[in-house]
Amino acid sequence: MVTYEQGWMDTNGALSLKNNTGVEVKNVVFLITYLDMSGNELDYEEFNKSVSIAPGKTKKIDIPAYEQERFYHYYKSPGNEMEPKTAFKIKFQLKDYNIEGKDGEINSSSLIRGKVEVTEILVFLQTIREVEQVKGQLHANLMKEHFQVVLAVMNLHILVAAEAVLDGITGLM
Fold this sequence. Notes:
Layout: E1 3-5, E2 12-18, E3 25-35, E4 41-53, E5 58-64, E6 73-74, E7 87-97, H1 110-172
Parallel strand pairs: 6-7
Antiparallel strand pairs: 1-2, 2-5, 3-4, 3-7
């Protein structure tokens, strides 16, 4: 990070990022920690920005202003003289860059989310396997019960047929 600006009336903060690598930088993930003038942490936020910065070049990007509705301002930017306690400093931490998401664009915490998605998929697949096993057992049980019903019906038909044969034999006598 080269510079940061946010005046007390601004709705966005302007952050300048310099590419100190030998390759184009695309898609950055960074953490901004907001500090009071004594260096105490006030808040933090992770940002994911789709950007293209050529090697050796600097690019300015906008992020939502910190506490804009309360007229906070970056300590090096113009502030409200009536509210001197609204000045803040920031700490910038680059977390990752050149991360590809769907359609080649950055998406929030792609690497971490990718690991989570893989874990979720594995859990889902395990659940499917378990469901398939239970389904197979239920199917086997249903087939067994169905078979038993069919046998019972066949036995009933045999009994009815046997009674009819007996009735026919008895009628001949």
